[in-house]
């Protein structure tokens, strides 16, 4: 599984970090980023809900 955040689209709403704090965080400017070592999001039951919660659909998940 591969998680991608389109930083050109992200508006920093933070819904991903609120929904799946074990996978996402926000950088110093408030934009979403993956936590170190969580690039695949494996095992987090809220990952797909966090993707759906993004108001601008900046996050995609691809099954490898």
UniProtKB/TrEMBL annotation:
PROSITE patterns: 4FE4S_FER_2. It holds the Pfam family Fer4_15. Its cofactor is [3Fe-4S] cluster. Residues 1-29 form the 4Fe-4S ferredoxin-type domain. Keywords: 3Fe-4S, Electron transport, Iron, Iron-sulfur, Metal-binding, Transport. InterPro entries: 3Fe4S_ferredoxin, 4Fe4S_Fe-S-bd, Fe-S_cluster_ET. Ferredoxins are iron-sulfur proteins that transfer electrons in a wide variety of metabolic reactions. This is Ferredoxin. It comes from Streptomyces kronopolitis. The lineage of its organism: Bacteria, Bacillati, Actinomycetota, Actinomycetes, Kitasatosporales.
